[in-house]
Amino acid sequence: MSYFNAVRVREDIPALTRIINGRPITYLDSGASTLPPRSVIEAMDTYYRLRHANVHRGVYQTANEATDAYEGAREAVAQFLNAPGGAEGVVFTKNCTESFNLLAKSWGVANLRDGDVVLISEMEHHANIVPWFQLRESVDLEVRFIPVDDNFELDLTNIDELLRGVKLLSLTAMSNVLGTINPVKSLARLAHEHGALVAIDASQSVGHLPIDLVDLDVDFMMFSGHKMLGPTGIGVFWTRPEILNAMPPFLGGGGMIADVRLDGYTPATGFTRFEAGTPMIAEAVGLHAAVRYLEGLGMANIEAHDRELTVDAISRLNDQFDGRVRIIGPAAHAERGGVLSLDVEGVHPHDIAQVLDEIGVCVRPGHHCAKPLMKKFNLAATARASYGPYSLPSDTDALLEGLQRAITFFG
Amino acid sequence: MSNLENLYKEIILDHYRTPRNRGELPPPASKTEGFNPLCGDELTVYLNVTDGVVADIKITGQGCSISQASSSLMSVAVKGRTLDEVREVLAKFKNMMTLDGEVVDLTDPLNRDVLRSLGELAALQGVSKFPVRIKCATLAWNTLSQGLEEN
What we know:
The complex is a heterodimer. The two termini of chain A are 36 Å apart. Chain A contains 14 helices and 17 strands. Chain A has two domains: 6-30 and 299-410, Aspartate Aminotransferase, domain 1, CATH 3.90.1150; 41-296, Type I PLP-dependent aspartate aminotransferase-like (Major domain) (Aspartate Aminotransferase, domain 2, 3-Layer(aba) Sandwich). Chain A has a seven-stranded mixed β-sheet with strand order 4-10-9-8-7-5-6, with helices on both faces. Chain A is of the alpha/beta class. By secondary structure, chain B is of the alpha+beta class. Chain B has helices spanning 3-7, 10-17, 65-78, 83-97, 109-118, 131-150, and strands spanning 30-36, 41-50, 53-62. Chain B is globular, with a radius of gyration of 15 Å.
């Protein structure tokens, strides 16, 4: 790899020292969750050993340190995204799914009325489908879908028509099933021309592609920390501060209030209004370390690294299996990320994953929380291999070896 | 025996490649659908119960080798049996599948008897060592169980 040394990155990842069934682990499930580097684990460890205290409360030194660490993470995320308005628009959530629920149940409830339209796509994760269906139970909302074409890309032929009457375009930046990278920037411009706001699911892209919110000019962005080398238990919801300040509270309780009386309460302003209860302080510290680590590698370098691995894997899969292994996603030359959904003729993805496990290869079988998309392509499941910045061509070697074994075993 | 061979015994592969009692039954046979929401497997069990006997059973659907083989083995095990016998084999099978990943102690005469009484179904015992695959093996049985209740 010419962009950065993935072998060095590998040395930073303790989980990659595991031996599974007698073989060094081949981790090809970064699409589900990435493996944290030592710096992330140590930052959380140090926090718990030396600095732990509740935030925004105490006046003693470690409480101040904890508050600084928590708010420092917010700053770091805002800079990482080049967020307009800085840290003021960054809300910490449990994960991307909670971020989408915050969008639907706070902004959505306050802004969407009978007859309004939310435009999503057929390649969305359930996190960007179900909250809209839930909202439809109380508002007569139309949930409209941008179709996916046979090249596994958005079919934008009728996009002007699709955008008619739309209040919100909510779209994934990169499909977690197909690897397709969507033209978010141009679609956001078009959606704005139609008077819609734009929300972007960056879960699959945030650890793999550079993000610049000023350049993208979108209105909401959400993702999970554990898909960008950070810990589980923390997600991000970002919006422009002026939109955030007009959103009603979502979860109620301590921390999110300005005042509570016997006859009612007044919510706090800004991001505080959306962070009820003691937040995920250690996870924010870990996320901060993950942001620093990714910045050290360079997001453009990670993108190039993913690309090199993916192009190589697609050509080798096609050469070695001669059509028996079908890649459910765009071809190598298309705009795509390091997610390879495989359909092996005559062998179920569960069985593939089981045989792969036998040689220590971790892939994900299933519908990847995107059932409408799977149904569209008449698939119950795929076996998905996905890369991270620590992945090497030797991971692809192990994948191919395992696929060959599975095909031989099941005949 | 390697882990894989323990899981994918020859009988299982045989039933996967050549499933028995595949297809549909016309009404008045009952029709029960089963889903595995985690992996997307789908199964439909058609049951024809006459005079307290499973006169015929057919199964359609898609899924992994374990779920397909388990449904095929199940159809053979219950076809022509009385409802009481079917309930008994159902209970024994589910018991075998919920051993929490423990290897069955075959020196225990009780376990030996149960496994022997299960016949070919005992081939699926290796699945209990793979906790995530247990739901693949039990999908057909849960669907059958639901079908019997509705009957």
